[in-house]
Amino acid sequence: MITKRIIPCLDVRDGRVVKGVNFQGLSDVSSPVELARYYSDSGADELVFYDITASAEGRRLFTDVLKAVAESVFIPLTVGGGINTLEDFDRVLKHGADKVSVNSGAIRDPALIGRAAKRYGDQCVVISADVKRVDGRFTVFARGGRDNTGLEAVEWIRRCVGDGAGEVVLNSIDTDGVRGGFDLEMLRAVSDAVDVPVIASGGAGSVRDFVTLFKTLPRVDAGLAASILHFGEVTVEDIKKALRDEGVNVRL
Amino acid sequence: MTGLIDYGVGNLFSLRSSLSMIGEECAVTGEPEELSRFDRLILPGVGAFGDAADKLRSTGLFDAVREYAATGRPLMGICLGMQLLFEKSLEYGEHRGLGLIPGKVTPIEKDIEPGLKIPHIGWNALSFKKDSPIFRELKDGEFVYFVHSYHATECEGYVSAVTEYGGTLTAAAERDNVFGCQFHPEKSGGTGLKILRAFCALEG
Question: What is the residue range of A66's domain?
C-alpha cells in the first residue's frame, strides 16, 4: 500500500537556505545542496523548496541552486515561491523541479492553474493555500499571509483541483509556528472535499503530531515539516519509526 | 552509450542527472535515424497516451523505436513511455501503441477499491513476479515512486513486478529486450539508481 510521505521544506533566499537551520555534522547548513542530500539520505520522501527571493538576480541564483540539487538528489522536488506565470513554471521545471507549487499567483490569475495543468500535466501542479480562520470561516490569504483575499478556503481549493491542480498543500496560518500540532479541523474539511493528495503543513512540533495527524485523518497523504527538522531535534527517520510502530505505512 | 528519446513529452532533466550519477554516458535524441547508434534506449514520457503516440508518429520515432527493438538491443519505457510499449490504450478513446509487449493500458479505477485517490501518487513497494535482469540488485518490498492513473492489463505472462493499492497494479513488465517501469526510477532514490545501473549494464 502507498506510504505516508514526510516532506522537509526549505526556504531559500538568494540561493541560500534561511531561517532556523542548525545542524551538526554538516559543513555548511545554509547550502541547499548539502541539506537536500542530508534529508534525502535520512529518508525524506520528497523535498519542497520555497524561493523567498525578491530580485531577478536572486531568482537566477535560485535556479542555479535548484539545478545543483536536482543533479544530486533523486527524489521528487517541488518548487514554490514567486510562481506567477507559465514562464515561471518553465524556468523551474527546466532546472530540475518535478512539481510547481502556486499560491498568490493563482489568486491573482485564476486561469494560471488550468493553463499550467494543460501544458505540464496535473501531476506537476500543486495548489498551496495559506488559510486562517476569520470570524469562524476558513479564509485564504495571499502574499505570505499578509492579504485577506476573502475567498472561502474549501471552495477555493476545490475549484483549483477542478482546474487541474494535482496536489494540495494546506498551510494553516493559525497553527503555523506554534508547534502545537497540525490543524486537524481545517485538514479534515479540505481532505473530505477533494480527491487528490493533501499535504498537511503548519504546526508540527513533535513526532507525536505526525502520528496524531495520520491516525486521525487517514485521507491526509503527507506531512510537511520545517523547523522541527531543521534544528536537528528530530529526524525524518524518528518520525517514520514512530509512525511504523503505530501501524502507519511508511518507507523505511 | 544510452540514448534518451526526446519527443517533446516530459522532462528529461532527472533522467539525465541519474545516468550521470551512475557514470553512464547518455545523449538526448529526437531523430529517428540516430537511434541505431545507441547501445540502449530509454523512452520517457508524461501526459496523455493519445498525444504522445501521435507525437511519436509525426516525428517518425514510432517506426524507428520498433525497428530498434527488433535488433535485440535493450529498450526501457518509463511511466507513459512504458504504457506506449503495449498494443493499445483506452485513455480518452482507443489509441494504438508500439505493440512491443502484448497487453493494453486501462484505468486503475477498475482494479482498485472505490474511494481511493487517483492518480496513485507516492512511494509504494514492489513485489516481483519473475527474475528480471533490471531488478537483480533489488530485494522484494523495496519502494519506488509512482504517479499514474492507468496501468497495463491483460499482459499476465509479461509482468515482472506489481504493487498493491487497494488491488494489484502492474508496476513493471518485460518481453525479451524490452522493459517497462510504470514508476519513475529516476525519482526513486537509491533503489531507482540500482535499476538504471542494471539496465545500463545490459548488452544487446
Answer: 5-245
